[in-house]
Specification:
Helices cover 35% and strands 8% of the residues. 9% of the residues are buried. The protein has helices at 27-34, 36-51, 85-93, and strands at 67-70, 81-84. It contains 3 helices and 2 strands; from the N terminus they run ααββα. By secondary structure, the protein is mainly alpha-helical. It has a domain at 35-93. Strands 1-2 form a two-stranded antiparallel ribbon. The chain binds zinc ion (2 copies). One zinc ion binds at residues 70-71, 88, 91-92.
């Protein structure tokens, strides 16, 4: 007879589209659950940077070397704009 093992901590629970992740989740976990495409793009960028197929650049706006990848279009995960935290936030704030 097979006994069900108690479920481990839900690490990768897929989130139904019409459901919001629980408030108690850390902001990053909530963001990941609500932006699966963005998350995938970031994973691909990190892998490409590690492999050397994508080279991290300083912030396009101010030259800060501590930059992160911004995706104008998540459907093109390796087409990124490098921006520092501040300018990255600014891009997203603009509508
Ligand atoms: Zn900047
Ligand atoms: Zn961005």
């Amino acid at each position: 007879m097979k006994r069900k093992r108690p479920p481990a901590l839900p690490k990768r629970t897929p989130m139904p589209a019409d459901e919001q992740p629980p408030i108690k989740w850390p902001a990053q976990a909530r963001w990941r659950a609500t932006h699966p495409q963005a998350r995938r793009a970031h994973v691909l960028v990190r892998a490409a940077v590690r492999k050397g197929t994508l080279v991290k650049q300083p912030c396009e706006d101010c030259g800060d070397p501590n930059s992160e990848a911004h995706h104008p279009n998540y459907a093109e995960p390796l087409r990124v704009v490098w921006l520092c935290r501040q300018h990255h936030k600014r891009r997203h704030a603009r509508r």
